Amino acid sequence: MSASAGLVRRLAQNRVARFIVVGGVNTVFGYGCFWLLLYVGLHYSMALLIGTVLGVLFNFKTTGTLVFGSHDNRLIFRFVGSYVFTYFCNLAGLRVLVGAGFSPQVGGLLLILPMAAVSFVILRRFVFAAKT
After folding, report:
1. DSSP designation for 131
2. pTM
3. Cα separation of 100 and 88, whole Å?
4. Which of 8, 78, 102, 119 ranks highest by number of CB atoms within 10 Å?
């Protein structure tokens, strides 16, 4: 086995690495929705809400299955609850950054990594805890 194949295998077995890869795809989708909604003229709070709802629907299966190995659809309610919490944290951060003079687009970008960390901890501890 080549060194690169071994590295790929180790990364695939690492939950945090899988979360980063799957989260990257989910982030592109969610931020893309957010940006598009801002572009068409929605206020950042409404764009964030709609982008979050669309992201939750997209993320549940990818995160549950690929990151945490769960196929339990009953966890959707906990998953949605985790995103409600994350949404309000994100909205509070965005309000602070917009108030400090950042555009909503830049503020949203600055919050991606902190919100990903918050999301991972919540998902690992409260949503998919039985699988971790």
Report:
1. G
2. 0.73
3. 18
4. 119
